[in-house]
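Standup notes
- DV: blocked on the single-chain target, sequence here:
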Amino acid sequence: MKIKLLIVFLLVFPFIVNFSTTSSYACSCIEPGTAVEELERSDFVFSGKVIEIRDPKADAAEKSSADLLELHFDVSHTWKGVDETEILIYTERDSASCGFNFTIDNEYLVYGNENDGKKSVSLCSKTTLLANAADDLTALGDGKEPSIAVNLETGDKVAGTESSMTMSITIFAAAVFFIIMASYMIVKKNAR
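- DV (later): unblocked, structure below
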C-alpha cells in the first residue's frame, strides 16, 4: 500500500508543481495630474511627430519587455526642457514594463523625465496623441517653437537659427556701414 501511494505521489507531484502559480508583475501607474501639474513634475514637455522607432535589440536572441526603444521625434512646439527641432527619447519595449506604445508618423504631446542621461517616457506619464490633447494644450498655452535646428541623421546642430540669422544680418550691415564710412573718409582726405 505504501509503495502504491509513493508511486501515485511521484506521478502526481510534477503536475501539481507545474500548475502552481507564478508571480508576474505588470506596470502599475498612479493617475496623472492636470497638465499644469504634470508640466511641473516633468523634466520635459513637447509636441512632435514620431519619425522613426529603433529597436537596438531587434536581432538579439533574448529580449525583455524592459528593453529600451529609441524614438526619433520631429519637435513642433516645446513647453519645457527641449530646445531642439529633433530629439531622441526612450521608452520600454512593452507596456508590461510601463513602455508607451508610440506609432510612426503620429503626433503626440509628450511628458517625460531624464533617467541616466536619457530622455524617457513612461506609460504612466500624461503623454497622449496630440489629437486627444486639446484640454492639455489649452491649459499649457501656446508653447514655443524649438530654437536649435538639429538633424539627427547627419549630426548637424545649429544653435539659435532665428537669432543667428538676425546676427548675420547685423554683422553684414555693420560691415557695409564701415566700408562706406572708410570710403567716404578716403575720398574726403584725397579731395584736400
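- Follow-up: The helical segments are 2-18, 35-41, 134-140, 161-191.
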